[in-house]
Structure formats: structure tokens, C-alpha cells
User: Fold this.
Amino acid sequence: MSDFSEFEDVFGASRSLAYSDNTRKAILQHRQTLENELFIDRLLKALGVRKVTRVYPPDSQTELETLHEQIIASSPPEHYKHSVLYYLLKDLSHANEEVADDFARSAYLPDKYKIFVDGIWLLDRLKFEKALDYLTEPVLLPTFPNEILYTLCRHSDHDVTLPIAYYQTVSPSISSSKVLEAYFHVLCQTSITEAFFFSRTQGDQNHHVLFEKMITFVHVKSRGAERASRGVELINLPFNEEEEPWFEHYLDQGKGNSLPGALDTLTMRLIATGRFAKGRQSGRSGGGQTIDGVNWETLRRGLWAK
Assistant:
């Protein structure tokens, strides 16, 4: 088996091999969309390649040869290097995918590496749904799981099913507050109840922070009937002895008291839990809105008049 240290053993003997202008332009646009870092950038950095955004995508065959030299000279195991070379061949063989596949076979690239590269190659081209088919394969060991989850949360064209499917299949350990907040936002879009129970699994500090973000989401990120529905879902959640005071303090005295309809929500929660007398004694009131056919301002006035 060749060690592929020779450029021609990987890319062939053509002396006019280069990325087309359209391919380079698309790659640069995708890098910008993905917040200035592609997944191939991460792989190249892991190999120790210098100045990644300057060397990829290469401007010419000479630059491609230089990139090949850096990959081969790197210290990681051969299958890591071959994975990156396989990615580059996929770039260059878009009209004939057999070229990249033939290389993978001749390099004896393990399936789990080939499948992973197929997945991130599609991610880098913003083909998120197709990428997910590869990145959720059971054979894979999670690689860049936080980065993949964040990318799906932020850039999958508002398709919230994709990051949730990835999370539920791969079960990554979320190690970044940025990723945690992005995924929690997706959960709030899908189901306030699901987001609520997820927040309980994230440790005491994150639990409290996410709990308040959930309340804020209902009041700020929702409109019209959707806001009304989420509001009803929020006030009927099964808060425990710790969460109940969090909820009341945040909307009454905390940063959430300036949210639109904050005191209405607090009043509705007191009514829903049979503790409206507490609200009367504290003098809480709000502007009111109609939710599920009930005008809470009218109801509040009627109750206060008793």
C-alpha cells in the first residue's frame, strides 16, 4: 500500500489540477456563513497545518501541493491524514465521486473515518439534512459534537428537527455555554415543556440560568396566538419548591419584571396554582391579554373585586 507521500499518488499526474473559481468562491462563502470556520479547517488545525484559512481552499496546484506536503509531514496517525486527503479529493471530484472513493479503498480508510468525512463535507456545504444521515451513524465516535450541534442549531434554516435529532441520537456532552444556549433556544421553539425538563438535567447553576431564559423566550420571542399558547404552557409547568420562587422573583423583582406581560404571567400562575390571594396582597397587576378565549385582565378585575 502506498503511503501517499507523493502528490501524484493521491491526486494523479495531471499538471493542471486546481480548484475552480466557482468552487473556491462557494467554499469561502460557506466559511463566512459558518462563522468563519469550516469543519475541514478544524481537521487541518488538528493536523498542525499552519494558517489554515490561507492554505484552504488552495489557489493553484502549487498551493495544493504545499498543502499536501504539510498534511503528510504532520505527526498524527496515517488514517487521520488520509481522512483529510479524502476530503480534498471530494472537493476536486464533484463530477466523479469514484475518484475519492477509490482513494479511500486504496488507503484502507476505516469506514468510521470515511463516514465522518462524508458528513462534515456535507456540513461545510450547508447540506445539513444529508449530513445528519452520516453523522448519526452508530459506528461513529463523536468528533466535534459540540461544534456540530451548534452548527445545526444556528444554521439549519430554522429546521429545529435536525439539532434535536442529532442530540437525541449522539447524546453529546455539552461543554460550552454558547452551545448550551443555542440548543436550549431550539428546544424552546419546539416545546416549552421539553425545554423545562431539559433545564433540570444541566446542573444547579445552568438550571437556574436556563429557567430564566425559558421565561424570557416566552415573553420576547413569541407573538400572537403562539405567545398565548406558550404562556399557558409556561404557567402550567410542574415547578418544584426551588423553581416556584425563581419564577416569582424573576417576574416580580428580578430582571424579568420589565418583560412585556410579566405581571400578567405571574398573576396567571398564582391563579393556576390556587394562590391568587398572595398576588392580591402584594398588589401585583398587569395589562391583560386573551389566552385560549380567556381575558385575564377581566378575570383579574373580577377576582380582585371580591
In short: The first helix runs from residue 7 to 11. Confidence is low (pLDDT under 50) at residues 298-306. The first strand starts at residue 290 and ends at 291. The CA atoms of residues 1 and 107 lie 7 Å apart.
